[in-house]
């Protein structure tokens, strides 16, 4: 009996000690104690209990997990269907393969920017160790200490404000004169004014309601397909019950319905701007009324938003994400970021404690909200690099991509398919952009000309692969030709953004004086030309795309200001000015007209950040014209 009791006691102790497997312990998530546990089964990784507990640290476990994932992805890549096949399933698989392309697939290890010791000519450079024989301390990491390159490094050096600090603009003092840091501008803004009375209530007819929801489906739910058809039907039913007398329905469903209608009105406000035609006074009045209706719905949603904060469910996270989207529409980046973080926190919580029914619609909704937050958060971090990250990016490789579980979002199969593929394309592009920023512009990085050319070549190869697997509906040419769909035109803008930052190190190298500008190699000049062409095409192809105006006006204004600054810096180098087309001289006026017209449509409360970006664009445009005029005079006199 004593022996049996001792054995039982030992068994109980062993169960308590090893209840959580090694992987769940390292991730700090709950483990169900099965062998293998559910989390490891879903992730398809080895599940061990207490093995090598004293010899393996968290870094070793992370490294092992990453190497296993890379091995699986490389095996998947060998079996990927040709991207030229027309079937939507093949397109989805190809896009997913681009999304999950690991950093280890490159034949170049590490960042092209090394520490200052790498630039000492008398120091012998050692070859990087083989990928398969690296220890955790040898594996290349990003600025966050993570082994995943799709995390945007905090305090990276590719923001517009970082570019403005280049010493090459010291000769243009008015560029920085009166400039206020973006965070200070946004922090000093007055809070959004709530309506002081509940007497104002948005009442719409059934026909108007259908038009608003159709606009939401064609825009917001196309870009971020998170609201299911069943949820749309519930919103329609809730809106029909909206009356001033029953306006005190403080539930998550009521909050979600108001937010959906607000975003639908915002979608109506920005519809058709991509055509480029000037709006008449009557058309502007209609859009103003639509925006005001959206603001009214949003005001009522904010009064109910506390219920979303208190409830732990996917619809509550959805409310927080939709709130972030509307703040993006209002060009209030700090408030948008705040609610992205709140939505991300709920996502992390709900995805950490997975339900028994893993194949539920609720789980698919959470994953879609997760990826939507990932895209938006990265977009804001790209310009405000000191924003505290939410924590979703470091785990994105462990979250399944959207489409694993059937999740009907639209009434037609074609629209639903296009929406899903567009969402995957945006996710994959955002991951590639993060990888580019991490490899080329991480904090404390310095140029190493011996390493960045092959890394740039590999990143450019991945970018071209992304473009090749796009479905025909989103196809585009890399020029100023019209694109078949607005979605395709928006993706071209993303492509050009990525290409410009991929090739920017060539320009930075030439501007740094490390290479004599007039004696630069053909490869260096060509790299600069590719960067400058992408910047200029990015500017000239900008239109009032609904996705850009509704979600990205603030981000776009800063990005375009940065592009103009890059072009201004390059224009001062004669060898580069020769490869820059004279269409550059129309870029500033084109941007200023677009951004000012968007500000007008958005309402009276203009964004100080956008206004400042417009001023920088105008200043840069004037200096570019002066530089070109002076260069032409020198050329005529034989001095250039």
Automatic annotation (TrEMBL):
Keywords for this protein: Membrane, Metal-binding, Nucleus, Transmembrane, Transmembrane helix
Which GO terms are recorded in the biological process aspect for this UniProt protein?
DNA-templated transcription
Q: Which residue intervals define the domain Zn(2)-C6 fungal-type in the entry?
A: 20-49
Residue ranges under compositional bias (Low complexity)? 121-130
Metal-binding as a keyword of this entry, yes or no, is: yes
Q: Which SUPFAM superfamilies match?
A: Zn2/Cys6 DNA-binding domain
One Pfam family assigned to this protein is Zn_clus
Q: Where are the transmembrane segments?
A: 545-570
Start-end of Polar residues biased regions: 100-109
GO MF term list: DNA binding; DNA-binding transcription factor activity, RNA polymerase II-specific; zinc ion binding
Which residue ranges are recorded for the region named Disordered? 100-149
Q: What is this protein called?
A: Zn(2)-C6 fungal-type domain-containing protein
Q: Source species, please? A: Coniella lustricola
């Amino acid at each position: 009996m004593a022996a049996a009791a001792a054995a039982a006691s030992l068994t109980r102790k062993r169960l308590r000690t090893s209840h959580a497997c090694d992987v769940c312990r390292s991730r700090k998530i709950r483990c169900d104690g099965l062998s293998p546990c559910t989390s490891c089964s879903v992730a398809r990784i080895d599940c061990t209990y207490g093995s090598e507990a004293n010899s393996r640290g968290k870094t070793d476990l992370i490294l092992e997990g990453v190497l296993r994932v890379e091995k699986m992805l490389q095996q998947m890549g060998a079996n990927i269907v040709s991207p030229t096949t027309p079937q939507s399933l093949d397109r989805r698989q190809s896009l997913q393969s681009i999304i999950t392309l690991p950093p280890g697939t490159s034949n170049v290890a590490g960042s092209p920017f090394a520490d200052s010791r790498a630039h000492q000519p008398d120091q012998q450079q050692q070859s990087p160790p083989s990928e398969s024989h690296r220890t955790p301390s040898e594996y290349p990491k990003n600025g966050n200490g993570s082994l995943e390159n799709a995390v945007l490094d905090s305090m990276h050096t590719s923001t517009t404000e970082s570019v403005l600090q280049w010493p090459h603009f010291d000769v243009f003092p008015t560029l920085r004169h009166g400039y206020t840091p973006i965070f200070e501008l946004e922090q000093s803004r007055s809070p959004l004014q709530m309506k002081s009375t509940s007497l104002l209530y948005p009442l719409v007819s059934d026909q108007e309601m259908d038009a608003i929801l159709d606009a939401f489906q064609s825009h917001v739910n196309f870009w971020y397909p998170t609201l299911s058809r069943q949820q749309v039907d519930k919103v329609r039913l809730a809106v029909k019950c909206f009356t001033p007398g029953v306006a005190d329905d403080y539930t998550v469903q009521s909050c979600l319905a108001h937010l959906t209608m607000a975003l639908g009105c915002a979608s109506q406000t920005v519809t058709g701007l991509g055509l480029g035609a000037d709006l008449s006074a009557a058309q502007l009045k209609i859009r103003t009324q639509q925006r005001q209706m959206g603001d009214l719905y949003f005001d009522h949603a904010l009064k109910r938003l506390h219920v979303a904060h208190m409830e732990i469910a996917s619809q509550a996270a959805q409310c927080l994400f939709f709130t972030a989207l509307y703040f993006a529409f209002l060009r209030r980046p700090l408030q948008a970021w705040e609610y992205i973080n709140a939505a991300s926190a709920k996502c992390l919580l709900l995805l950490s404690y997975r339900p028994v029914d893993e194949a539920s619609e609720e789980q698919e909704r959470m994953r879609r909200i997760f990826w939507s937050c990932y895209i938006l958060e990265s977009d804001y971090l790209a310009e405000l690099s000191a924003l505290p990250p939410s924590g979703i990016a470091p785990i994105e490789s462990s979250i399944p991509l959207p489409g694993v579980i059937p999740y009907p979002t639209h009434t037609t199969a074609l629209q639903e398919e296009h929406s899903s593929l567009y969402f995957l394309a945006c996710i994959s592009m955002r991951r590639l952009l993060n990888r580019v920023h991490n490899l080329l512009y991480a904090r404390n990085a310095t140029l190493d000309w011996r390493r960045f050319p092959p890394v740039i070549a590999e990143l450019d190869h991945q970018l071209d692969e992304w473009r090749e697997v796009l479905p025909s509906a989103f196809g585009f040419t890399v020029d100023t030709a019209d694109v078949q769909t607005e979605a395709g035109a928006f993706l071209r803008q993303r492509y050009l953004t990525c290409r410009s930052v991929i090739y920017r190190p060539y320009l930075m190298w030439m501007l740094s004086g490390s290479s004599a500008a007039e004696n630069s190699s053909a490869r260096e000049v060509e790299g600069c030309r590719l960067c400058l062409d992408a910047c200029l095409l990015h500017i000239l192809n900008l239109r009032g795309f609904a996705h850009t105006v509704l979600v990205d006006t603030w981000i776009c204004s800063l990005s375009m200001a940065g592009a103009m600054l890059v072009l201004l810096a390059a224009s001062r180098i004669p060898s580069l000015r020769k490869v820059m087309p004279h269409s550059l001289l129309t870029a500033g006026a084109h941007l200023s007209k677009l951004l000012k017209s968007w500000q007008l449509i958005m309402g009276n409360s203009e964004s100080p950040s956008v206004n400042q970006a417009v001023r920088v664009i105008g200043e840069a445009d004037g200096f570019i014209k002066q530089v070109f005029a002076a260069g032409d005079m020198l050329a005529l006199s034989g001095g250039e």
